[in-house]
Amino acid sequence: MKHFYLLITFLCISFSYGQNAQSNGDIKDFKLYPNPVTNGKVYVSTSDTSPKQILIYDVLGTQVLETKIIGDELNLYDLDAGVYVLRVYQNNKVATRKLIVK
Q: What range(s) does the Secretion system C-terminal sorting domain occupy (predicted)?
């Protein structure tokens, strides 16, 4: 039941934040592409060049990946096809998005 509530919380956050960073006050110029991911790589770009802390959760709310990236490229070769929640932390700001891996 705990996983269900966590999933609902992440989905609500994801839908309420939308896809445009400037309208919701999170990380400036945040972009996540391509989404859906088909080649095992996704690019997480922002206007800031500082490191990004990345957390990825499955639909049950279980953390499946935690990493830090310096550039924009994030390798997702180890993730199975499915729907995930991606959280990016950078300079005390956060962005949350739905991520689809095919």
A: 32-101
